[in-house]
Amino acid sequence: MADLRENLGWLLGAIIAGVTAFLIWFYESGLLNTLIGVIIGVGIAYFIQTRTQNRAWKREYSVKIAEQVYGSLYRDIKWTIWSLERKNFRPPTFEKWGQIQEDHRYFMVDEKFRAKLDSFFERSRKYGFTTSKLRNEVLPKIAREEAERIFKTKTEEIKLEVKYKEGTHIVSTSPEIIECLISQIHPKD
Fold it and tell me: Which of 12, 38, 78, 162 has the most crowded Cβ, counting Cβ within 10 A?
């Protein structure tokens, strides 16, 4: 037992001496400075690579949002403005936002802007419902009532269309008299 304790002490001392000699040699040879330089270089490279990768992902995400969300919304809004400027009174086609609301793209849009788009979507749906009712119910009813009053006959006997003749030939027929009234365009045009 005593022999083991003496050998263990000698073995422990040899290990400590060997480690100390290695550390002195490592320090004196310049490998310590090299190792520190490599560690610092790897750290800087990792930091720069991480920042560059994050920027690339953000840029890619921004392009994806622009293509998938804002591009289609821009086309819908542009068409709606064009239609209103020409007094076309067609129901607006802002339905793309309705599709976006139903999937993950909804959360790609900034929260405040999303609320404004939701509000605009609801208003455009109400406008679409109103113009559809005007076009399909109100104006045809007015036209039939006035036709009955002017021609003193029942509307079932009246066909609401406009025909143009030059001599004995029919030049154009416009069955969409309601559309012409809404757009304030002469049926001949």
Answer: 162
Cα-based distances in Å from 147 to 40, 140, 150, 160, 172? 91, 10, 5, 9, 21
SS3 43: helix
Half-sphere exposure of 74 (CA within 13 A, CB side): 7
pLDDT in tens, 89-134: 667 777 888 888 888 888 888 899 999 999 988 988 888 888 888 8
Residue 173's SS3 state is strand
151-164 per-position pLDDT tens digit: 777 766 555 666 66
Backbone φ/ψ region at 70: left (φ over 0), alpha (ψ -120 to 50), beta: alpha
Domain ranges of the chain: 31-158, 159-189
Give CA–CA dist 130/90, Å, rounded.
10
Q: How far, CA to CA in Å, does 175 sit from each of 9, 141, 161, 163, 170?
A: 112, 15, 4, 8, 14
pTM of the model: 0.54
> Which pLDDT score is estimated for 49?
93
